[in-house]
Structure formats: structure tokens, C-alpha cells
Amino acid sequence: MTTYAVTGATGELGALVIDALLEREIEAAAIVAVVRNTAKAAGLQERGVTVREGDYDKPETLASALAGVDTLMFISGSEVGQRVRQHGNVVEAARAAGVQRIAYTSVLRADTSDLALAPEHKATEALIRESGIPFTLLRNGWYIENYTGQLGQYLQAGAVIGAAGDARIAAATRADFAEAAAVVLTGEGHENAVYELGGTPFAMVEFASAVSEVTSRSIGYRNVTLDEYKQGLLAAGLDEGMAGFLAALEANTAAGDLDTESEDLAKLIGRPSTPLTEAVRAAHTA
Ligand SMILES: NC(=O)c1ccc[n+]([C@@H]2O[C@H](COP(=O)([O-])OP(=O)(O)OC[C@H]3O[C@@H](n4cnc5c(N)ncnc54)[C@H](OP(=O)(O)O)[C@@H]3O)[C@@H](O)[C@H]2O)c1
């Protein structure tokens, strides 16, 4: 029996990857949820998933967390700026434990992208390649939930406000990315493959239309300058560092760094990505 491990299993994507593995008839007993806080994982334990402590900052926990694991879903950490060191700990523990394959959640065109988040993913991809462990790179695009998570603010403001202009954004739902991950984890022929994963592209004006349709409100897209965008974030209470970082990401978005014409996601999941309107509706009714 192949043993699978999923890091970041108490996070949003990790939980969905475990759901997708179970839906693909992988037994709960064959899944190890690697989490830094086991108290958050009681629900997983109740479902029969093995829960082990594994903190990217504590190599000793990673060694025991990955013992006996064949196939590792390595979900990138959330502490921007710390991740190359942390991810190096995970890769080294996987190598020492004899893991047979690592699937890693990277970002679109990690090796060439100007995206502010790309350098840590590029460096992690290099560490994985250098480890000699067979890999599958899941270069995920943006989550639609990055936008639908702000539905309440859009409705309050009466508009979607951004500085992305008419750039196309090939975002997809976390559930679609999780399904693609489960496909490559459980399937054959994904060794050393690099997948550029994106959904059906949309511009923010189309996103605003989807919000209008679902909420029966007239919500437009108001494009502002990057400076106005950053000032808006500061006025909303974000600190200078975070506002600057998010403004840089918005500039990346405007430059097309979140777009892809790749069909890899639809090919892996065997269907088109979840339609934008459906994703907005799910957030609206949640
Ligand atoms: N494609 C996109 O649009 C997008 C957007 C945001 C992030 N991301 C990337 O995709 C990853 C997964 O997304 P998500 O939505 O599932 O994020 P999330 O809900 O924040 O999950 C991140 C997971 O990483 C775990 N983690 C963070 N630091 C860790 C450490 N030092 N040791 C062990 N585990 C650690 C967290 O543990 P806890 O549960 O204990 O907090 C959490 O389970 C993110 O971490 C980030 O790298 C992608």
C-alpha cells in the first residue's frame, strides 16, 4: 500500500487535498496529515487519517513525520520570507526518509516569473531537483478565493476596486487545484513533470459582473492607480510592508503574471475548471 503524506494539512488547500485523496478511494489509513499544530487536526484524526507533528521550522519533527512515506504532497508554507530555509528542511527530511516522490505547490512559471512571490518557489524547486527525489511541480495560479474572500467588502463598497486594469487572471478554485494534486499523487506518469495550472482566465471587470449576477447588486470594477490602491490598503489598516507587498502583487497581476494559456489543469482534472460564477455563488452562500 502506498503511503501518502500531506503537509499543511490543517490549511485550506491541504484539507481539500485530503478530501480529494479520500474521494479517489485512497484509504484514510494510507494518509498521513503533517501538521505543525496537532490540536487543529482532531477532525482528520476522527476520519481515520494519521496525524503527525511536522513543523517546517523543526527538522526533528519532520524526520519522524515523514518516516515510511512514499508520496509526499508538500504544500508551500505561508510565512513569506522564511520559506527557502523552511522548505529546505522539508526536502532534506524527505530525502533522509526515502520518500519516492514529492509533489510541490509552486507558482505559475516560477523560474521566469516577475511575481513577487516567485523567488521562494524558484529556490524551492531548485532544492527539490537537487535532492534527486522524483518530483511533480504543481505551479498553481491564483485562487479565485483570494477575490471571493472579499465579497463582503465589495458589497459594502458597491464596487470591486483594484489596479489590475484589463489583465487576464487564470485563477481557479482551491478545490480544483486540490483535485489536480490528488490526480498527480495517485496517478502514473507524473515523474519530473512540471504543470502550469490555471483556470479559465477572466478580467476583473468580468469578476465584478459575476458578483453582480450572483448577488443581484450592481457591482462594477473600479480601476485605480497602483498608488491609490496602496493608499486604500493603508487606510484599511494594513501596515506599510503588507500594503506595499499587496500593491506589488497587483502590479504583477496588471502585467499578466497571473495569466496562463496552459490547459494543464483541465487536462489533469478531466473537465473545465469551476466556472467563475459558480465559485462566486459558493462564496455568497457559504
Ligand atoms: N495560489 C494562491 O493564490 C495562493 C494564495 C495564498 C497562498 N498560497 C500558497 O499556497 C499554500 C496553501 O494555501 P492555503 O490556502 O492552504 O494556505 P493556508 O490555509 O494558510 O495553509 C497554509 C498551511 O501551511 C502550514 N504551515 C505554515 N507554516 C508552517 C510551518 N512552519 N510548519 C508546518 N506547517 C506550516 C499552515 O499550518 P497552520 O494550519 O498551523 O497555520 C497551514 O496548514 C500557502 O501556504 C501558500 O504557500 C497560494
From TrEMBL:
SUPFAM superfamilies for this protein: NAD(P)-binding Rossmann-fold domains
Domain of life: Bacteria
InterPro entries in UniProt: NAD(P)-bd_dom_sf, NmrA-like, NmrA-type_oxidoreductase
NmrA-like domain segment(s): 5-260
CDD domains according to UniProt: TMR_SDR_a (cd05269)
Gene3D superfamilies: NAD(P)-binding Rossmann-like Domain (3.40.50.720), UDP-galactose 4-epimerase, domain 1 (3.90.25.10)
The name this protein goes by in its record: NAD(P)H dehydrogenase (Quinone)
Source organism (scientific name): Crystallibacter crystallopoietes
Lineage: Bacteria, Bacillati, Actinomycetota, Actinomycetes, Micrococcales
